[in-house]
User: What shape does this take?
Amino acid sequence: MTDQEHDRIDSLMARMEQIDPPDDFVSRLMDRITAEAYEARHRPVSRAGLLYAAVYLLALMALGLFAYRLGIDMAHNGSSSLIVAILGNVQLLREAPGALFSALSASIPWSEAGAVAGDVILISLLTRLILRSSQPGNRAATPR
Amino acid sequence: MRAGFYTAGVGEQRANSPDRSDEDLVRDFVVGDTDAYEALVRRYMKPILNFVYRMIGNRSDADDLAQDVFVQVYKALPRARTDLPFKPWLYVVARNKCLDFLKKKRPIHFSAFDNAETADNPMDNVADPDPLPEELVEQADLQRLLHRAIEALPEKYRVVVSLRYASGLTFAEIGETLSLPENTVKTQFQRAKASLRSSLASLA
Assistant: This one.
């Protein structure tokens, strides 16, 4: 079917009335856009947003501290050297996977690693909460 | 800037200027020319309003929703890709707005359109109690029939029919809007017309 082919339904639908926008459609729209832009610029920061930001800062500082501790412990107990060796010779994984796994699990400081992982999850969650608390009412349009 | 200080101006001239493509206007708007956005609104406000009206069935809601579409586009355009065609994207926004609106709204029953207080009936605006000429009555009946027939369509078909008849998009443009191949759009349109034929037959 081409755009030009016409049947009785097309003829009938062609008689469908087109409504005209009101005369003030554009002016109302632009006034509304101006007002919303003004409100967005002068919107006070919410209490929840401030709280999330404060916790976010603490979480970032904690991440630095936990990551430092993790790095130090891994260097002292040899787990970082073991990982470097494995990455340098992937064949080891095929030759002695059980032994490697045991050595890694015994040497990695799991509490520090858990603290880093948990902090990363917390930071991700806080990022979402901060973004949500700073959003205006309307959803963003579909990305092009 | 304070609300209420908008006055019409250059936008109206630009909307009617055939050498200014949508993409030219979008590029101008993105770098800060609000008149370019006004020109886009003037160019598309009637087809968008008609599309929204056919989708949701109520004129005053259609006016508000059409405004919402353009507000959303205004906010999103600065972040959007200006190399892609504007028109299909505009209709994507409009379609999504309509579908969101329909999801929140309670189902409309056919009896609601027989109610003179809620139906969009040209006869509602006539204050003269004397009988109207037959042609006006027939025209009003036809419009009501077409309106109800479109309302009766499933949403998927209503979108295609509204884009085609209310907004005058080509099949290629409808395909771009719905992210479908043109042949699929034509198939859906044929099915929609068959549905429309049945609705018109049963409502007439």
Summary: Chain A touches chain B through 36 residues (CB under 8 Å).
